[in-house]
Fold this sequence. Notes:
It contains 25 helices and 20 strands. By secondary structure, it is of the alpha/beta class. Helix 1 runs antiparallel to helix 3, helix 1 crosses helix 6 (about 205-215) and helix 21 (about 595-610) packs across helix 24. About 55% of the residues are buried. An eight-stranded parallel barrel has the order 13-14-15-16-17-18-19-20, surrounded by six helices. It has a seven-stranded mixed beta sheet with strand order 6-10-9-8-7-11-12. Mean pLDDT is about 85; it is low at about 1-10 and about 105-140. Helix content is about 40%, strand content about 15%. The radius of gyration is 28 Å and the shape is globular.
Amino acid sequence: MSAGEAGPVSGGGEVVVETAVRNVGGLHTRPAAVIAELLAGFAATVTLAVPGKEPATATSAISIAILAAAPGTPVRITGTGADARAAVEAVRELIEEGFGEELAEELAEELSETGGPSTGAPDAAPVAAPPSAPAEHHPARPLGVSPGRVVGPVAVRRGARPVAPSTAERLPAAARPDAVERLERATAHVAEGLRASGERLEGQRREVLLATAVLAADEAVAAAAAAGIRDDGLTPEAAVWRELTRTAERYREAGGRFAERTIDLIDVRDRIIARLRGVELAGLPETGHPVIVVADDLAPADTVALDATTCLALVTEQGGPTSHTAIIARELGIPAIVGAVGATGLADGTLVLVDGSTGELVVQPDAAEQATATGVLTVPPFVGPGRTRDGHLVQLTANIGAPRDAARALERGAEGVGLFRTEFCFLDRTTAPIVEEQVDAYAEVLSAFAGRTVVLRTLDAGSDKPLPFLTPQDEPNPALGVRGYRTSRRDPGVLDDQLQAIAIAAERTAEHPHVMSPMIATVGEAREFVRRARAAGLATVGIMIETPAAVMVAEELCALADFVSVGTNDLAQYTMAADRQSGELAELTDAWQPAVLRMISLVGAAAARTGTPLSVCGEGAADARLAPVLVGLGAQSLSMAARAIPAVGDTLAQATLEQCRRAAEAACAADTPAAAREAAQRALA
Length: 685
């Protein structure tokens, strides 16, 4: 029987179908939970089988995850019962659609060529074998998993794990039924608590917590623990400890993404134990002031509770780039590193520098190292205007990602908003927001910065911000695919609605917003965007320069636009042909790379010749040591994380415009980032 054809293969109404795993992550916790929940609505018994392992009950998310089915792994789905055919087909569709996740490149390619999977017998070799079990539970060195560079005091989470229960105690037979009921009540309480917390959230935090709730209610684990009480006389605490610890070890042995989910099971175990004992688990440190949270590891339920206003960064000894802690930290915008062995040995209050891009962890950083951070606690708010020592004005503005960020930007002394990322209106949705929803959000920020510059970047979907209603779901290289302005080719109405919303917000607030488009690569794209923005009634229209192609035609682009803004993050990525989310390639995407600086120099020269205002945004603009160089290259405005504004303003105030120009020239002439930094520092001395 070929893949995708379901039908009885033996007596008794058994239905079997064969397919293959397609999503990059394989059948990890969330897909496993989706399958288990789906089958709750069918009158059928379904199992999943992969080569070399016993079939797993498909209503048990944990049993499915233990299969460690990686991309390309053949899966045999078997069902019996009244709804067997429908249940098997529903599971097959989920697996073949990839659970809404990125598809493995080999399988996506096959899909486009053949229109379906090519699966052989269940013992066929998978396209990509599951990763081998790691010798350690942490990387060889700290790994950055959520970008951002901050400085602050640590607060170490201590005593989070309950003491293991005794396995020597045995219950008398008469006490065992009540003990099973106690365990069932405790398990149900934990599962319902996690489910209720997840329902109040959105995005990946919601998905992760709901998947953890499914683990807590897993029927296979519950049955095994109950058997431990009835057959072996274990206490409820010992039974659930034994079963979930064994299961966690099987996750760990599976390696890769599955090993990174071990903490999810351990957390479920500990919550059930705490409920049985009538105690509360140790929570996150509460200090009353912003801190860098350090822990051995953090479970999803801990991470979703983090407040980005008081948690400057996360540092864990265990975990990996696809752990749920990493996923949630990225969604919350909190810098994070994992695999920092020995970090929990730090004393509370120790000052550290954390770089969530490179994995750098510096204990007691000196003044120069602190100056490289985008969040230094001891710097007072900036009092503008921004200017060099000889009075040359440089507008210092903030990057914000939602209306709630406006107050913090004003507190830090922002002179305006140089980059308003409007994606927050579109993320975690299956359809585009209506115009009125957007109007309210944009008007809130325009009102907060009344009389000041506010630059709204139109939707930058695609790459690391996919949208199910707008961007392709199976691009082999999303960073080079349909993203930014290019999404308007697929659905022009999304951009036109956004431009209309900005224009209405401007009219409602009597403000004059600036608008710019990301990922403009050609003169034709720039001309069309400017035309559409002006047609919507927007007077000040700019474009972002983020690709070498745009740099090469910068003079023509400047002639078309009212202003241009260099995005250092993407310009570095595309100039150096290095993924800016890769910690291994972080050195290549450093804004101090001479090639990147020379690109900015070309844009600065084009802007000067045409009289076009030039701004710079991105991580480069937040680097206090780089700021004078950017001004020397022609930047008239720098937009950055709000916490970086005081340090950048202070640095610029100590240099003249001529010194900035000499520093720029010296940095561009260097041959390495380190040499560029040194050359600039000498020129500014």
